Amino acid sequence: MRPAGRARGLPAAAYTSDRVFAFERDRFWRGGWTCLGRADRLAEPGDQAGLDVAGAGVLVVRDAAGRLRTFRNTCRHRGHELVARDCVVRRPTVWCAYHAWVYRLDGTLRNAPRYDPPPDADLDLLPVRSAQWRGWLFADLSGDAPPLPDVVGDLDSVLAPYRPEELRVVASRSYDVAANWKLVVENYLECYHCPSTHPQLSRVQRTEGGESFTPTDGWLGGHLDLRNSANAMSLDGTGPGWTFPRLDEDAARQVRYHLLPPDLFVTATPDHLVTHRLVPVATDRTRVECEWLLPAELVAAGTDPGYAVDFWHTTNRQDWAACESVQRGISGGGYRPGPLAPHEDLLHTFLVRVATAYRTGGPLSPARPTVEPAP
Amino acid sequence: MRPAGRARGLPAAAYTSDRVFAFERDRFWRGGWTCLGRADRLAEPGDQAGLDVAGAGVLVVRDAAGRLRTFRNTCRHRGHELVARDCVVRRPTVWCAYHAWVYRLDGTLRNAPRYDPPPDADLDLLPVRSAQWRGWLFADLSGDAPPLPDVVGDLDSVLAPYRPEELRVVASRSYDVAANWKLVVENYLECYHCPSTHPQLSRVQRTEGGESFTPTDGWLGGHLDLRNSANAMSLDGTGPGWTFPRLDEDAARQVRYHLLPPDLFVTATPDHLVTHRLVPVATDRTRVECEWLLPAELVAAGTDPGYAVDFWHTTNRQDWAACESVQRGISGGGYRPGPLAPHEDLLHTFLVRVATAYRTGGPLSPARPTVEPAP
Amino acid sequence: MRPAGRARGLPAAAYTSDRVFAFERDRFWRGGWTCLGRADRLAEPGDQAGLDVAGAGVLVVRDAAGRLRTFRNTCRHRGHELVARDCVVRRPTVWCAYHAWVYRLDGTLRNAPRYDPPPDADLDLLPVRSAQWRGWLFADLSGDAPPLPDVVGDLDSVLAPYRPEELRVVASRSYDVAANWKLVVENYLECYHCPSTHPQLSRVQRTEGGESFTPTDGWLGGHLDLRNSANAMSLDGTGPGWTFPRLDEDAARQVRYHLLPPDLFVTATPDHLVTHRLVPVATDRTRVECEWLLPAELVAAGTDPGYAVDFWHTTNRQDWAACESVQRGISGGGYRPGPLAPHEDLLHTFLVRVATAYRTGGPLSPARPTVEPAP
User: Fold this and answer.
1) Which residues, 6+ apart, have CB-to-CB distance to A43 below 8 Å?
2) To the nearest whole angstrom, how far is the Cα of B7 from the nearest Cα of chain C?
């Protein structure tokens, strides 16, 4: 689906209207699967985290059997948060700090103090549908999205050689970006901007000549080669001298970019992964949570992850500056959607999917479409 | 009116909708009596203060006869404030700093410079209805609320033994709370949260076993006993070794909580009062003005009010943290109003009154209802 | 058009409503001529500036022939700004930092990298109508305002003796004012407030006894005499001992105030000019760009402009404090538009023009009205 100079971007209102933003928040984020980060952030039974899905609080609990459970992060009594947002605690029960209501780790109400008789209504925590995939935890606030494996589709086999489920988070960083979340996605989906925006990246990675993947499902992605002079995505091109052992010859010299809409970017390099998770805050504001993931072997060998952290932190800031400038440039009435370049085919695919979801009321991550039988 | 586990809280929109907030601001605050603080803040003739009633400016002036007068804090010429908000000045006239229009302390226009002939329209300051009660000044921006004594009702005799009109403000503190004003009120109306939220308070005061008052009028309240081990509401339970002399035996060992809706909390302890005055700023933001009041005898004796200031400042911050967590918890779509506990009967009375005012267009502080004659 | 105490100000909503503000932004600022500042800020071919017209980005470029050109500050590809807002750069082409699209200084697209064939659509920069007048650059985003000379009208001959086109900017300062832009204009149009608001100014300039100009066109203005004891608008009344040589005897002792609606104030004194340019940000927020202009002779002689800078910076801050107090005073429901004073005739003319533009859909700077032939 090469746009060939004829396809054009979305109109300005898609990036500046509060009503469009509210629609997207309700349909794209709260209406389907969104990523809550790494599951191993909750390591032990009793670990509990307060997380944020597009402004809605979600409580994640590792129960006594070691299974992760997710609930609305809201006490059934008066609505107090059960764990403060962005915090992790370890406790044998879920405990509301306001009136000391106590829930078991499976979400059932254990005690409401000073009730006699106890309240007879169902006051267990409201469950939130969740699922895990290769180390990441996902939630579906709507409860009726297709099963997560159908949405992930063959991205699973594409990422399998990196064994993401065995990686360790060695660094993380949160960014506030003054731009609409779609501009951050669009920026991720093309490397046409790399030569002008990313001089450091362009020294170690080719910026053209790659290919887009042809997913069977809702994800998008493509890959580009490391330059011959470079061995890793780092400021000087040197890395840990190690490569994921299951990669084929191509992948061992490629940087592979994968978007699982609406919110997870997985960038796979020969020796590490870096992920970006988007949290939409307002039509012109997005929080981006970036994590660096290294294989356990390298962590055990004492590899300093600074080579990857410095590189992507440099690249991140260049990207956010570009996105923020576009946000300003398309505000104020002077923007006409321009033609997409041949190297923006993935971006085009994404925009077509957004436009379709505007029409259908979508979510943005459709599962594999049912194949229509031939008549 | 024990809720008995069946009554439930208000829906989330009551705490998150801008439209509900605008309604409440216009009907509850600007539509009836609100408290402007202590009258003796303006001690001498010519003293003038610029105050704020839910975003509307009010000018308070002590006139030559020593009487307090209240006006819109807006010059009749072009609208400049007459005294800057939150400031007190002493001047023989009311003087607009913009074009030097001068008003007498009774609000009549004395001079509009460079008019010849003088403007013939009525350009006296726009009066605001006001009244005092036991040292507090109240304003009614609507002008047609029932008389203040009818709204205060028997709260007057309930507080009489503390002689509030003779107390001195020994400390004050302003808090910005990121929560809807009703959450701050609800938090004040129950001590069900005390054991978990207020460990210091719970060491010196019992948190159950008290009674609610049965007011004849618009106020609400209840009382709880000091613990046997404590003599005062302080971090270590010791106080000034003095008790209001007119208290009966019960009151001399009780902490009494009184709400005069929508905005004044009067907490009476055996040796001091503390008050909270709410100023609604936005649907999710409330300013709280806290004042500590001590009897003149203790002030004259050089009593350090720190024992009460430290105690309530600690308690205040715990309360605001809880209110702010509830505000977050009920935002984002995952909140279902829960059942109120038996110890939340006052809160229930308040919510019924709010819901009634939503329906009738209220104000929130009804005067004593006319008794229907028997048929 | 002396208001004589009967004419009144605009209702509060004109200064507090978001809808009124959006109307004014679209009709008054983006619907006609607005000032972009001094043209000589871009001195050499290749100089480029990113400017702001009421939130819309404008790119100004001095082309190879030395002519100023203006465009939307938005790349035709994806909308990135071409020059960052409030920045000036010098480059042989217009270059988008995002994807390296290149435009010639005349706005035509020179290169879109990696297109083969090149895009066949018209992708030249979107031109913005502009014009210069006596050293100032103006833009008309609507493209259909009357010619700038018709809007400027006889302000041109009024200012001619000061030869503004030959002056040098010797200082500039940006202010954020928490008031509606019209309050800033109204404050400029009367010196009735000077005795009370500006003690320093009132020591060197008379505050009454002047005259309003009777323009044939869209501008407004008036003049007031220097006091006999003063030689310049400075804190101590002393100046550089020099006077614009072409001024007549009256002008040589006058301070002359000129408003070219909606956004340019030109204050002409016997030895320097000071200008204010308004940028509306929100209904209660205005950015004011102040510039001090001295004749080349004084600059060449090494005159320290501090005498004028200190004086107007003092005066500016007094004005903004007054405007901000009015903004607060007219918010909250207690404001009734008051009678305008005899010395507020210019302000009255301005308000009548605003009210007329509300009715007709504006813009605010009408050209000379066509004279109706006698029947």
Assistant:
1) A62
2) 36
